[in-house]
Amino acid sequence: LRDAREEAVRATRRKETIERARLTQFADQAEKDARVDALRKQLKATRKALTAQREETETALRELKAVNDFAEQREVERLIEVRKEAREKGKENLRSATHVEAAFRAKCVKGMQDMLEVNKKLEARVLQERERRVTAEAEVGQLKRTLTFQRTVGAMQSFM
To answer: Per-residue pLDDT tens for 91-105?
Structure first.
């Protein structure tokens, strides 16, 4: 009878130990799931940020192209205007043609300088957007590696 009681006590303790282990395992799994969910949310947010950066970069490139096209068209119009002036003044006075040529060159130089300044500003903006995109892509890669590592560790722990 005494042995039976001791055996019953041991069986009850074993059951309690097994139940505690199960509860601990469930709590650990819930914690892991919460971490994985948080990482997924962070990955989703990073992807959204990357998409936004990509859209901003595309917008900046379109703006750059539009500004560049506008500057080229403006430069062509300036060249046509200056050439027209040069022809008219050349007919009137051969000496003033030299002056018109100098004015033409000055206007061309001014136009080219304006275009180069605009291009520098836009190129700097495109480079900045590219750096943001690369950084966001690196963050996404790191999050993927972290998530994969945590899944691997979780799988390894579940086998233990």
So the answer is: 777 666 577 678 888
